[in-house]
Design brief:
It contains eleven helices and 20 strands. The chain has 394 residues and is an alpha+beta fold. β18 and β19 form a beta hairpin. The two termini are 36 Å apart. The relative contact order is 0.17. The structure holds flavin-adenine dinucleotide. The site of flavin-adenine dinucleotide (FAD) has 32 residues, from α1, β3, β12 and α8.
């Protein structure tokens, strides 16, 4: 902390996005406070693979490499996938991606959220420029021309030139600042589980669009697949109530038995799905990042990847301000962050939303249209390459 009793930046929320930002800022020489209500659960290799996994894009892995945490993550448990196969239940088109087409090592890596959080938290604990304040929550906030002050639930205060809310989809700090959001409830839940299939997953991420649902099989190191099955609420309730054998039969059928029968499943969990976009990303000495700024449909597996791109942009803006010896909370600099990230995130969110609507319908003309669209993209290498590069975060 500086002599004036003030941090350069306070990051509220140490999920994957907030922790990555705090680490990146500290490594660039800034003095950072991190406020988080709970220490993330420890990750042990002997534990069952956690049900929450993410598909990390190459751009996210590049960031983790630069932060020097990727070796710890990948050597613990991460499964690279080199191919992706997308198809539709009602139309003949299909779309195939291969990492080699874009000279990438992999299209992405499937990693447990808990492992990433654990490795990042350990790195935060070791970092000299970071003050971890945990457990703590922010109860109110105020700003003047020099600082933003946070009042914590134990009655103490934290002051910083700049405060970043990385406290997730239900961001309490975003609400305290009164930032409005645009919301859409998909009336769907994503069922997640790890399953055994008759045939090997072939280091491939598979996604099938079924009317009113999408089902993705993502490869795990132990040969199982991690599934994300997004279905209407009532259907989710029905599927969750099935016994394991009946669930495996229903899942195998929804996946068109592409990997043969589903022969076993882990426990299952389900998450409600919604679109939530903050109407602005900045306020006085304040910025939103990650799910606090944007929550998107998981069908493209991009939520945390977009959040980590926010990290790169905001870190760039703040470090540039520090190098120029200017105010870290200057609205001028923050506007650049907002302009760049809000448009990209909104574009991505609306694209996933459109895909969800187009592929969610069982109307025959729409089914024909999406069959044609998949086939057309697959047959046009430049267009396909553009999609692949976007998904890789390039
Ligand atoms: C089923 C499903 C599958 C998904 N698959 C993918 C995928 O394949 N690829 C992908 O990129 N994304 C995926 N996502 C999205 C991804 O999980 C999220 O985008 C990501 O977890 C958001 O990270 P975050 O750090 O912004 O927020 P969070 O992970 O929500 O972290 C928020 C942090 O803030 C803390 N916090 C909460 N309240 C407070 C408070 N009041 N004060 C301080 N701290 C607080 C929390 O304890 C937590 O540590 C998926 C999502 C779902 C639901």
């Amino acid at each position: 902390m500086s002599r004036r009793g003030m941090h350069d930046v306070a990051v509220v929320g140490a999920g994957m996005v907030g922790a990555a930002l705090a680490l990146a800022l500290a490594r660039a020489g800034l003095d950072v406070a991190v406020i988080e209500p709970r220490v993330p659960a420890a990750w042990r290799s002997a534990d069952e693979v956690d049900l929450r996994v993410v598909a990390l894009a190459p751009s996210s892995v590049d960031l983790f490499r630069r932060l020097d945490v990727w070796t710890a993550i990948s050597s613990a448990r991460a499964c690279a996938y080199r191919h992706m196969h997308v198809w539709d239940a009602l139309a003949p088109g299909k779309l195939d991606f291969d990492a080699a087409d874009n000279a990438e090592l992999a299209l992405g890596w499937i990693v447990e959220n808990r492992l990433i959080q654990h490795v990042l938290w350990q790195a935060l604990e070791r970092e000299a420029g970071i003050r971890l304040i945990c457990p703590a929550r922010v109860t109110s906030t105020d700003s003047d021309e020099r600082r933003r002050t946070l009042l914590l639930d134990d009655g103490s205060t934290v002051a910083a030139q700049m405060v970043v809310a990385a406290d997730g989809a239900d961001s309490a700090l975003r609400n305290l600042l009164g930032v409005p959001t645009h919301d859409r409830d998909y009336a769907q839940r994503a069922i997640v589980a790890h399953v055994v299939t008759e045939r090997a997953h072939q280091a491939t991420a598979w996604q099938r669009f079924v009317p009113q649902a999408t089902v993705a099989f993502l490869p795990l190191n132990d040969g199982r697949s991690s599934i994300v099955w997004s279905v209407q609420q009532a259907e989710a309730t029905r599927l969750l109530a099935l016994d394991d054998a009946a669930f495996c039969r229903a899942l195998g059928a929804a996946f068109d038995f592409r990997l043969g029968a589903v022969t076993a499943t882990s426990a299952r969990a389900a998450f409600p799905l919604r679109l939530r976009l903050a109407e602005h990303y900045i306020a006085a000495r304040f910025a939103l990042i990650g799910d606090a700024a944007h929550v998107v449909h998981p069908l493209a597996g991009q939520g945390v990847n977009l959040g980590l791109r926010d990290v790169e942009e905001l870190c760039g803006v703040l470090v540039e301000a520090r190098t120029a010896k200017s105010d870290l909370g200057s609205v001028h600099a923050l506007r650049r962050y907002e302009r760049r990230r809000r448009s990209e995130n909104a574009l991505a969110a609306h694209a996933f939303d459109a895909i969800q609507r187009l592929f969610g319908s069982d109307a025959l003309p729409l089914a024909m249209l999406r069959g044609l669209a998949l086939g057309a993209v697959d047959r046009m290498p430049p267009l396909k390459q553009m999609f692949a590069r976007r998904a890789a975060g390039r």
